[in-house]
Amino acid sequence: MNLDNFINTLKQLKGDTADFEIAVSNIHNLEVDSIYKLLFAKELTGSRRKDFIKEFPTVDWPNPDKFTYKALYHECKKRKLEVQEVFTYLLSTNINNSITDINTFDFIDNIKVQLKW
Q: What is the dihedral of CA 48, 57, 62, 51, to 10 degrees?
């Protein structure tokens, strides 16, 4: 799954119930690799994450205390470049949003994140 497809699917998963159901159906039909399912779930919160996990019982879901970016990084590191690109995008977006949402850092426009692959 390339980055654009991942981003579009993630937007659907975060959308209303109908969009969520369409995205889940597409993931099932396309037989998306479990690493992408883990990455989708990591980006979802609360009941949406819980509903997503229920849809994919065959995925080896980690315990909540082990469902970390560090653990996902080590798993993505073993995978192809497309997976690493998606993970880098997700981590960069999260770091940027975390920093730029704080008024103290409103002078920061963007932070470039480089990972050790």
A: 10
- What is the SS3 assignment for 67? coil
111 domain residue, yes or no: no
CB 62 within 8 A of CB 75: no
Q: Can you tell me the distance from the alpha carbon of 8 to that of 46, in angstroms, rounded to the nearest whole number?
A: 20
- Within a 10 A sphere around the Cβ of 23, how many other Cβ atoms? 21
Per-residue pLDDT tens digits for 4-63: 999 999 999 999 999 999 999 999 999 999 999 999 999 999 999 999 999 999 999 999
Q: Which two tokens stand for residue 21?
A: 């159901």
- The Cβ of residue 16 has, within 10 Å, a number of other Cβ atoms equal to 8
**Is the distance from CB of 99 to CB of 90 less than 8 angstroms?**
no
This prediction's pTM:
0.91
Could you tell me the residue range of the domain that residue 94 belongs to? Answer: 3-105
